[in-house]
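Sanity check. The docking grid for 2-acetamido-2-deoxy-beta-D-glucopyranose depends on where the pocket ends up, so I'm generating a full predicted complex first rather than guessing from homology. Inputs follow.
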Amino acid sequence: QIFRSVFLLIQMLFLLHTMLTVSNYIILHLIPVTIIKDNGLNAKNRKKVMPDLFTEPPVVDPIYEANAYCNIPNITEHGFEGHAPPDHRLLSVHVMIRHGDRYPLYAIPKTKRPAIDCILAPDRKPSHPHLEAFVNHMSKPTKGHMDSSLNGLPRYPSHSVCETGELTQTGVVQHLLNGQHLRDIYIRKHKLLPSDWTTKHLYVESTGKSRTLQSGLALLYSLLPDFEWQKLVIRHQWSTIFCSSSCDCPMRNHYLEEEQRRQYNLRMKNSQLEQTYVDMAKIVGVPTRQLRAANPIDSLLCHFCHNISFPCTESGCIDREHFKVIKAHQLEDEQERREKKLYYKYALLATHPLLNQTVSRMHHVLRGKKEEVFALYSAHDVTVSPVLNALGLLEARFPRFAARLIFELWQGPKNKNYFIRILYNGDDVTFQTSFCRKHNRHSKWPLCPFENFASFVQKEMFAVFNSTDYYDACHRRVF
Ligand SMILES: *[C@@H]1O[C@H](CO)[C@@H](O)[C@H](O)[C@H]1NC(C)=O
Ligand SMILES: *[C@@H]1O[C@H](CO)[C@@H](O)[C@H](O)[C@H]1NC(C)=O
Ligand SMILES: *[C@@H]1O[C@H](CO)[C@@H](O)[C@H](O)[C@H]1NC(C)=O
Ligand SMILES: *[C@@H]1O[C@H](CO)[C@@H](O)[C@H](O)[C@H]1NC(C)=O
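Predicted complex below; grid placement will be based on this.
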């Protein structure tokens, strides 16, 4: 009798084991098929991702793209930042942002500029619960430790008629939302910074424009509410590609010139675009050349994002069709830019110094130095766009207002394993980068090894130049 029971028990255990093995098999092999966009680590992610896949229109629609570019703030910002298997530890985060919504840099000749109020008013939409406290904190007389060229800039927008290129209230709100989202994930959930964080834990750098400084401050204010000004050090970066002291690179300029030639040739081929400029020039009453030089799309996008009707004169109105033709051409230009690879070569050389800095800083952290664990670069579209391109993120959209590109360094359960995650506007794009695309995320390591990123930056990114280092790639002439 006892023998029989033991036998049955063994049989049951065997059955149970088989069932577990089968379900393991199913789990391991179905996930790669069903999850396309995220890294398949968290079942909750799937629900959030799927709607995106269906709402993306299959063909490029200039109006849809323009709306994505405006990034009109809604209640909260979300994304897949900070997702990793539970036994992994977040060590360091690098955030690169484009400034928020701004007033145009160009004016359409002989028309009224859009009427936008750049005084921050919490009761005007779009607003944010922290907007008033932000203004109060920024108005405190204490100086942060900023490089002298930044100290002269206002810390928040404040003109009743926005000045050229000034950050708008929309732009401030966009970055308050970014900061709040990053606070929830990095500070509250992952405790990236100790509660008694000091100057040495942060690294902050901004270009010398008020819109980048103010965008960075808005993000930091939400990330670390009521931070003590004495703890904050902001460095000034004079170069829009953040090349610091490694800017000498003749070949980078060479590829940029070739890229500009490509852009010019594409424009010349587009007769519908040419006709649109002719029509618009007639409406405003200036030579076509002058209108084109005034880069009207910059101003029209501002009208569009702020729901202000396009400018009119006695001869007529600039309308949505004009806007659509120019915007569609921009999208076509981005498509050809990706295919022709001249911009890619420019981007590799332009972004090496910045990426090299990121790798160096992460190396320090993984060797145990608990310094500069959160880095923020407050920058421009011309900063973020080449980084996306150099990483091989060919699907990525042109940086919208308040775009964010994030690098996360993770430590695996066995101490010597380090991983990189890359997120663009909250989407996990790690496995779309050229250095992680081939990584089998269903192997032993579901995340991408940090070493892939490091060796890409230190060596592999120069392979297209038949070179192995920055100096050589920058100076080797190939025509
Ligand atoms: C937020 O805005 C985006 C477009 O910018 C829109 O697709 C989405 O539905 C909005 N979400 C909410 C909660 O309003
Ligand atoms: C844009 O403005 C028009 C009127 O000028 C208004 O009917 C429409 O609701 C506005 N749209 C938004 C999203 O505010
Ligand atoms: C890359 O980083 C290393 C280590 O910090 C540094 O020695 C080197 O000069 C950097 N190279 C460039 C081109 O910035
Ligand atoms: C790199 O070398 C290959 C073969 O030697 C050659 O075909 C290619 O043109 C070279 N590329 C550059 C950028 O020098």
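Relevant for the grid: The radius of gyration is 25 Å.
Also worth noting: The CA atoms of residues 348 and 390 lie 5 Å apart.
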